[in-house]
Amino acid sequence: MKYKILFLCFVIGTSVFSQTVQPAYRNPVISGDFPDPSVIRVGEDYYAAGTSSEFAPNYPLYHSVDLINWEKTGFIFYETPEWIEGSCWAPELFYQNDTFYAYYTARKKSDHTSCIGVATTKDIRKGFTDRGILIEWGNEAIDAFVFRDTDNKLYITWKAYGLDPTRSIELLASELRPDGLALTGEVFSLTQHNNGWVGQGDEGECLVKHGNYYYLLYSVGGCCDNRCDYRVRVARSTSLKGTWEQLPGPILEGGGLWRCSGHGTLVTTPDNRYFYLYHAYNQYDFEFIGRQGLLDELLFDEVSGWPYFRDGKNPTAQTKVPFSNTVQKRNSVFFDDFSSEANRIYWQWDMKQPKPTVERTKDGLKLSGSPFVFLGTNPLAGNYVMETEFIPAEDAFKGLSVYGNAGNYFVWGIEGNEIRGYEVRNNETHAFHRSIFDKKPERIRLKIESSVGRLFRFYWSDDGKEWHSFQLPNKHYDGTFIPRWGAGIHVGLFLESHAGKTGTFSWFKLETNF
After folding, report:
1. CA separation, residue 75 to residues 36, 57, 104, 126 (Å)
2. What are phi and psi of 306, to 5 degrees?
3. Angle at 405 between CA 128 and CA 393, to 5 degrees
4. b vs e for 123-135, b when ≥16 Cβ sit within 10 Å of the residue's Cβ?
5. Phi, psi of 112 (to 5 degrees)
6. Interatomic CA distance for residues 101 and 131, integer angstroms
7. How far apart are CA 27 and CA 316, in angstroms?
C-alpha cells in the first residue's frame, strides 16, 4: 500500500509539473555581432537586419517564424553602393505594397559625413537596389525609424546633431512621401529642449501608437565599447508634434548576464503582443563577440498606461517562448567545404581593403588579392575552436586569423615548411612564434582555440590526428587589443598575396561552445 501511495504521488506531481512548466528560450536569439537590430513582420514571417560597420557585404538579414529561431538569409547589399565609404549602421526595415524597404546609415566618400539612404526590393533574399541618399542633415544623420500613423501617413525619424558642438542632440522627424522614397513637409523635432525635454545623447529610437498615446522608446548613454552604459527610456505624447512626457529612469538596462542593452525596435505578433528586438553585450565575451540580438516582451500597465518589460528592467537570460509548441535550436558547428555557394552569406571582408578574389575549385577555396586577403565570419560566442586545412606547396603564407581591422589582428599560418604566428597591433608587426618542419608536409591543418573571445591557443597537425602546440609565456596568447569600437571581431582565412600569389583552403570549421 505504501508503494502505491508513493507511486500515485509521483504521478500527480509529474502531471502538475508538466502543466506548470512552460517551454523557454535563452537570449541571445541572434548570436554573435548583431548591433542596432530592426525587425518587421510580414504575415507570419519575421525579418531582421543589423549593423555591419566596416565589413562587406553590408547589413546582415535574418528570417524567423517564431522570433527565437533565426536563419541568416543574406545581406541588404551584396555589392556596396559606390557612394558609401563605411560606417554601415542601423538599417531599418519597412514593408508596404509588396515591397521591402531598408533605411540605412552610411558614411559618404565625398565628405565623410554619415547620412541616411534608402533601398528597396521585391524579394528580400536577393538583396536590395539602392535608391540613394534620403537624408543629409548637418554633420550627421543616423538611426532612422519609419512609422505609419493611424491616418495612414508615413513618418521617418532620425538622430541629428550628434557631431555638432554648438547644439544638443535631437530626434527629428518628417513625413515621408507615400512611396517612402522622399521627405515631404517640414522637418520637426520630437525632443525639443525648449519644451522641457531632458536629453542624454538620445538615439536608436522607435515609435508605437497604443491607445491614446504615441510612445517613443529611445536609447541613452554610451553604446559601443567596454565602458558603455547604454539603456532604454520611454516618453509619450498625444501628438507627434506635441510635448513629450518622459518616464523617469530606464525601462531596460544592463544587469545579470547582459550589459548595455538598447537600440531595438518593436514588432507585434498576430495576437497583438509586443516584442522588442535589441542588442546587448554578454558580460563575459563583451566587445570580443560584440552586441548580440536579444528579445523581450513589452507590456502596458492598465492603470498608468506606461510600458514595461514583462520580465523586469534587466535583459532576460531565459524566459518563456513567444509561441507555444516551439523549441529553440542552436547550431554550434559551421562547416564550409566550399563546394557550393550556399555558405557565402556567412563570409565578409574588410571594406576598407580591396575586395578578395574568390574562386571555388575542386581542391577548395582559392583566394587572391593584394597586399593581403582576409575572409571572415562572426564567432557566435567567446569560447570557440576554428580549424582549416590546405596544401602548403603553394608559396603564399596562409592560415587562420582573428581580425579587428587592417591595423589590428593576428595570424597563425604556414608558408612552405615554415609555421609562424604574428600580430599586427596599431599597424606594427610582431612575431610570437616561428618553427621549421624537417620536410614540407603534403597537407597541413591549423587550429585556434579561443576562451572568452580574447585568450588563444594555437595548434598544427600534418595528419588531423596528432596535434602539436608550443609553450606561450603566459599559457595563452592575449588578443585584448583586437576589437574595434562598435564592432565585434571576425575570424577566418588569411592570405599574404604579394606578387599575385594565391592560396587554396580545403575547408573551414568553426565550432562554438555555447
Report:
1. 15, 6, 12, 8
2. -80, 145
3. 95
4. ebeebbebbebbb
5. 65, 15
6. 10
7. 7
SS3 sequence, 12-59? HHHHHHHHHCCCEEECCCECCCCCCCEEEEECCEEEEECCCECEECEE
pLDDT tens per residue across span 185-212: 899 999 987 678 999 899 999 999 999 9
Buried b (16+ CB within 10 A) or exposed e, 462-478: beeeeeeeeeeeeeebe
Name the 3-class secondary structure at 125. helix
Task: Label residues 355-376 b or e (16+ Cβ within 10 Å = b).
Answer: ebebeeeeebbbbbbbebbbbb
For residues 93-111, give the mean pLDDT: 98
pLDDT in tens, 306-342: 999 999 999 999 999 999 999 999 999 999 999 999 9
Give the list of residues 6+ apart from residue 72 with CB closer than 8 angstroms, or none: 60, 61, 62, 345, 346
What are the cell numbers at 426?
596599431
Q: Longest Cα pair distance anywhere in the chain, in angstroms?
A: 87
Half-sphere exposure of 458 (CA within 13 A, CB side): 23
Using one digit for the tens of pLDDT, what is the confidence trace for 442-487? 789 999 999 999 999 999 998 888 999 998 888 899 999 999 999 9
